[in-house]
Design goal:
Layout: H1 6-24, H2 27-31, H3 33-53, H4 57-72, H5 74-84, H6 91-120, H7 122-144
Helix pairs in contact: 1-4, 3-4, 3-5, 3-7, 6-7
Length: 151
Amino acid sequence: MGWAGAGLALTAFGAAFVAVRLLGGGLPDRFGGAGVAAASLAVEAAGLVLLAVAPSALAALVGAGLTGAGCSLVFPALGLEALRRTSPAFRATALGAYAAFQDVAYGLTGPVTGIVAGLYGYRSVFWIGAAAALGGMLTALSLARPKSAGE
């Protein structure tokens, strides 16, 4: 949009990310990984939508902060779920595979969203991110639901 202060948006993202990780790092242990991941992804999606529609630099700054806050606990919360669903003998392997998949996702996301931004503009990247966060939220909610007798 040509707004000044893009560095401030990155600062807002990073500061919110670190603050939530420091202050809320124990939330997955207290409330369960799936529920915390779902709530975090909802906050992240809200921040991304705000970034996509931001009418001003201030709104974009708030969106970046919300995105960072939401993003902060997703990895540890879902990691807890991965470990909880794995037998103790294979937890290190499961955690390694979980981390590797995130690395692959980071490696693919940059080039793919760069192409999308080139074709459709930067706002499209935020919409795609918000849709992905909402999809992740639905997945996390399905993990949080109690299993029925036949599952």
